[in-house]
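Researcher: Re-running this chain for the archive, since the previous output was lost when a drive failed. Same request as before.
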Amino acid sequence: MDRLLIAADAALRTLFATPRPTRPMPAPSAAPVLDTRQKRLSGALMRVNHVGEVCAQALYTAQAAVTRDPALRAHFEEASREETDHLAWTRQRLEALGDRPSLLNPLWYAGAFALGLVAGRVGGDRVSLGFVAETEDQVAAHLDRHLQRLPVADTASRAIVAQMKADEQAHADEARAAGGAELPAPVRLLMRGAAKVMTTTAHYV
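Model: Regenerated structure tokens:
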């Protein structure tokens, strides 16, 4: 019951509360000046990145709820807290760009939470950690592509994405070091396909 209440509280905080970062948001020395087209593109890309952080909260919360290893539960909870910085930064940047989060965030959260439950329940801790490692690898690659697409003038968004990429890759490395198993190729391919659907939809909705 305690874990269920904690998971419900995490969902409500992620979807409806204003996230509070523990680290200052990465920022350039001067605020960028963007035209309407640049703002629209940056807003769409940062909305996609915000969705990724909503999903990260769901994934780590679910995995923390199902593992029976107290040390691993603490690992997932700490990773979730670190991802809260990203959630807050992307939300703040969206507001600065005059844009909004995805209207489908509850759906994205529910889907990621379900995947986290399945990974932890069916595969056990090694598969659960492997799922984290593969997810973070794919997120880091996705963020690298966004660094190539973001307007050069949008130094504020670029600073956030660069720090997020470094953090996500560190999470992947930590999951492997903790014993994460490599996922089968079909599973990795399926994850990429699901991520493509999500990112394409969130770009607009």
